[in-house]
Amino acid sequence: MSLAEKQIVIFGGSSGIGLATARIAAEAGGRVTIVGRSREKLSAAQNELNNVEIAVADVADEAAVNRVFAALETIDHVYNAAGSFVGGTVLENSADFYRAVFEARIWGSFHIVRAAFPKMQPNGSFVFTGGVSTARPVPGAWATAVTTAAAEQMARALAVEIAPLRVNAVSPGWTDTTMWDQIFGEGKQEIFAGVAEKLLTKRLDTAEEVARAVIFLMSNDSITGETIHVEGGHRLV
Q: How many domains does the structure of the chain reveal?
């Protein structure tokens, strides 16, 4: 199915995988709206892509998400790329410290589906973001592992619940995006090199490679309830 003239909404669309998805969707002729918390970052992304609309909203804010979809007449595809890494063991920190990661990946997708559903077109779809941490959790990242698993399960559950609308998930591995610049700082490349050496492909994902999986899920009318893994064979090592 062509994405030309389809209304596509991407939460977390100002950077990383979300931005890469917006670029490909716009190049395919889609009418793309990118959503994020920072107007400054959204404006920069809009200037870079030149042919997308922007909307400021925190995916965890139900009222804000409702306003995004209220401004649109119809909706064809929605991708929730919003989410961040929150490190710490289950015995550390407070519940509030970890709350943001749950809000974005789980409750954010909940808000999106409820707000978008009345305007979704018959061949429409939702795509959520899981992650390799579902299958390969590591110490100090329990919150991310739980929420990526939840996003993937939500895709399966909602595919049954809101059929014939389609619901899928993309599961990235270690992907070289600016999010990791903030987390690892100057040590990022050394850490990435160590990770890459363990992968079957001997390299990390790019944001564009994950984005192309998202576009595929939007474009194929027969795929629903699935999770596509883009992680260099990480689950096998």
A: 1
